[in-house]
Amino acid sequence: MDILFKSDNHSNIIFSDFGEGDMIQSNQNLIFHEKSGLLIDPGGIRVYKNLYEKVSQTLPVENIKHIFLSHQDPDIVSSLNGWLMVTDATAYISDFWIRFITHFWVDSTAIERIKPIDDKGMILNCCSCDISIIPAHFLHSAGNFQVYDSESKILYTGDLAASFGAPYKMTENFETHIQYIEKFHKRMMGSLNAINSWKKKIENFDIDMIVPQHGAVIKGKNEVKKFIKWAGNTPCGSDLL
User: What domain range is 45 assigned to?
Assistant: First the structure.
């Protein structure tokens, strides 16, 4: 557990150490504003117990009021039923994926608490703090969203900017970091067209930090700008067919 941002009434916490064996490493994130929590990509069923214990040491679990799911992959959503059973939270995912994620088993009493995100995105109110849900379709999922928290100036990018094998949790040198993100980026991101559509949606955001779902955080405005420029100039996905 690491604190990415903290003020008198607002905290951003990342949990990154629950993978084991052959599991893909993944980050789970918590935004806590006053008495309301937003859990971002809560992870697979095998990380549920450890994450529950760590979150409960941070705030009362019942204070989690929102759960954000960037897309449909099992390393993001397969623990959802557990969180819906121990909280009264509302979960949000692309309208496109709701009927798919129920295959991971969601109790019939909780299905009505899974709400669709329109393709254009939305604003989520977290105890008087507005959180932006931003479209990032085909990066990599056909129905994909990101979270921007204006309080901390953190952009949570899901699989975009994911890294593997980096010997650190936070990078402040993007040029050195490229080797850990390039292969995954080229294979998993949809196309430069999708990247450039995303760039237009975030161009007016003040971003101090990018937090992907896998691997190291990209810290600092200049490093964030370097990543955005690199992504906009790096063919990926269908560009490489």
Answer: 2-240
Report whether 1 contacts 9 (CB < 8 A): no
User: 212, 174 in Cβ contact below 8 A?
Assistant: no
Residue with tokens 């932006």: 132
Number of domains into which the chain is organized = 1
Which CATH number goes with the domain that contains 132? 3.60.15.10
Peptide bond between residue 140 and the one before it cis (omega within 30 degrees of 0) = yes
Which stretches does DSSP call E strand in 16-60? 28-33, 36-40
pTM > 0.90: yes or no: yes
Q: In what order do the strands lie in the sheet with 90-94?
A: 2-6, 10-15, 28-33, 36-40, 64-68, 90-94, 114-117
Residue 126 has pLDDT above 90, yes or no: no
